[in-house]
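REVIEWER CHECKLIST
Item 1: Sequence provided? yes
Item 2: Single chain? yes
Item 3: Sequence as submitted:
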Amino acid sequence: MTDNRYQDLGQLGATTPLPDHPDTAALERVANPCDAPYMIRFAVPEFTSLCPVTGAPDFAHLVIDYVPRDWIVESKSLKLFLGSFRNHGAFHEACTTQIAQRLVKELDPVWLRIGGYWYPRGGIPIDVFFATGEAPAGVWIPEQGVASYRGRG
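Item 4: Structure as written out by the authors:
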C-alpha cells in the first residue's frame, strides 16, 4: 500500500538522471516526522565540482547539519542535487554557500550549518563554513569531526 503523504516525491523510487546543473536540480522535501527539536547530519565525503577557470576537478568532504522546522530534505533528491555539481564550474566558496542557501530556501530550517573541507588545489586547502546563526539551545550539536588538511602527517 502506498503512503499518500509521499505522493509528490517524483524522484524517490524512480529512475532519475543526474541533473545538468544545480539550479535545475529538484530538492524534494517531506514533513518533519518529529515534534521535538533534533539535528540531522549528512556527510558527503566524495563531493566533486569543477574549477571555473581550468575545468579541473575539485574535491571536498562536506558536512551538512540542520535542525528542521516543518520539513526535512528527501535524501535521494539531496544526493542528485549534490551530484549536479560534478560538471558545474564554481569556486569552493560558491559551491559551499550555494548548497547552504538552497537548503535554507527549500526547507526553512530552525538552523543550518555546512562545513566544506576542500582538498588542496595549487598546494592550498580551502575550508568554507556557513551557518544561519547560533545553534539552538537544547539540541545536541556534535562537532563535525573533520580535521583540517595536514597532508601526509
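Item 5: Key structural point noted by reviewer: Residues 41-131 form a domain with the GTP Cyclohydrolase I, domain 2 fold (CATH 3.30.1130.10).
Item 6: Recommendation: ____
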